[in-house]
Amino acid sequence: MLTSGVDVERDPLGRGLSLVAARAFAPGEVLLDEPPRFLLVEADDGVDDELLAATCAATGQSAAHELPRTLAAALALWVRLPHAERCAMAELFCKPDDPGLAELCASIAAEVRTRVPRLSHVGEDAGVPPLGDALLVWLLSSHTTACVESGNEGAALFALGHRCNHSCAPNAAYVPAGAHRLRLRALVPIRAGEHIFTSYLRSHELLAPCHVRRALLSARKCFRCVCARCAAADDAEPERALPCACGARAALSAGGAWRCAGCGSVAPPSAEVLARERELCARAARDELHAAELEPGRWTEHWVHCAGAWREAADELRAALAAGDGARARASWPLLVEHFRAAESRHPHARHFVSAHAAEAFACLRAAALADADADAAALACRLCAPYLRALEAEYGVDDVHNAQMRAFCAGRCRACGRPDACAVGAHCAECAAGGAPADCAFLHVGERAEGDAAVPERMGLQMAVGACEGMRVLKAAASGAEVVVVNAAKAC
């Protein structure tokens, strides 16, 4: 179902057809709610042993691997479809920038044909694309879906949903809508005539610099990203910053040199640093990097530190909750603060980049607060996660059960001590207010400010200073006296 106000037009950058807003949309509005055009359900994909064995042999992967099962299921569906339906699937085909994937799929299809005799003539009738193209459609255009009622996951092709092109600064996001439907929601205000973009990357991967994002998209979707954010990053990548001798940070600038934002010095990066950076970037993109493995202080302003801090904090929180170890859970809190500080200081108006992290952090901290009656955990849950509630509601809806749980938990809870006796979200209890608690959250700024004609989120960086830039600021985490040292704090918002 195409909602009124959304059209399909040719993309000006040559990316095929694209979804375009014919009217203005507010954050959280549903742009598209669509049933699948073609569906493969995990519990009933029609894949027999012969077909699965053939795709395993053709891909060189075992049956436990996702790739041969996906390809085998797609081929099984292709065999069952009548001629007209195969032609309809062909209309969803989009040739990748990299011809290598097309050649690979063609070779896989050819080998499967030889191993499964009943496929020898499938796809040879006029007007129907070859089997290799059918595989490409599923690899490049399918979406993972779920059915709440049956609990079955699946993969599906959507007639309109796959027309939404990628951007590393998306203005919309897909969310499962039950019964294997796909729902597209606006993340930010969208003007009439504006192209609608979603992200083909995982949300936290949007924190990575341009060269990493492009490498991930090339490997998974076989195209080079030319979105506005990547085009701007061709000149500089501020996410790749290292400490300078003056105490400020040096970011990678045009020409491959590191330019310091403090003293202005320019120096070429050493081969050792670049080699180490390549290793860390690759591992961080695979979610295998831990903050403890970074050289102390060297990568503090680099995106890999943000990725590593989250990975270690999340792992420690989960393990501590499972073991009922409150002290271990508290030890991970400074890493949580550091992760959100780094993410927010670089992308102050893109809360959805780490909204999934905020939701997971809230779930863990809330569990700790309720299990141990831990007011500090409750306070940290509110401080870190409540500012993301608006972004989560825009992405998943106000009625989402997890969003409702977060709002109910934060409502009326003091943002300084965590006690549930303040008058409103973001407020302080009488005792903390009398003691001089800051007007804003000690970790994040909350609310919105007007900028031009559009309301945009308040800058989300930590409250480093008031009215001036400080060289160093020690922030007290609500974690049993733990301290997080933040070097070269930015100016206060």
List the helices and strands and how they pair.
Blueprint: E1 6-10, E2 17-21, E3 30-34, E4 38-41, H1 49-59, H2 66-80, H3 83-90, H4 99-115, H5 131-141, E5 143-146, E6 153-157, E7 165-166, E8 172-176, E9 182-186, E10 197-198, H6 210-221, H7 228-233, E11 237-243, E12 249-252, E13 258-260, E14 266-267, H8 271-285, H9 303-323, H10 326-331, H11 333-346, H12 355-372, H13 375-385, H14 389-396, H15 401-410, H16 430-434, E15 448-451, E16 454-457, E17 472-476, E18 483-487
Parallel strand pairs: 7-10
Antiparallel strand pairs: 1-2, 3-9, 4-6, 5-6, 8-9, 11-12, 12-13, 13-14, 15-16, 17-18
Helix pairs in contact: 1-2, 1-4, 2-5, 4-5, 9-11, 9-12, 12-13, 12-15
How would you explain this protein's 3D organization?
Residues 4-201 form the SET domain. InterPro entries: H3K4_H4K5_MeTrfase, SET_dom, SET_dom_sf. It comes from Diacronema lutheri. This is SET domain-containing protein. The protein has 493 residues and is of the alpha+beta class. The protein folds into 2 domains: 6-203, Beta-clip-like (Beta Complex), CATH 2.170.270.10; 270-487, no CATH class. It is 38% helix and 15% strand. It contains 16 helices and 18 strands. It has helices at 49-59, 66-80, 83-90, 99-115, 131-141, 210-221, 228-233, 271-285, 303-323, 326-331, 333-346, 355-372, 375-385, 389-396, 401-410, 430-434; strands spanning 6-10, 17-21, 30-34, 38-41, 143-146, 153-157, 165-166, 172-176, 182-186, 197-198, 237-243, 249-252, 258-260, 266-267, 448-451, 454-457, 472-476, 483-487. The strands form 7 sheets. A 4-stranded antiparallel sheet has the order 11-12-13-14, with no helix packed on it. A hairpin with a 5-residue loop joins strand 12 and strand 13. Helix 4 (99-115) packs across helix 5 (131-141) and helix 9 (303-323) runs antiparallel to helix 11 (333-346). The longest helix is centred in the middle third of the chain and has 21 residues, at 303-323. The protein is globular.
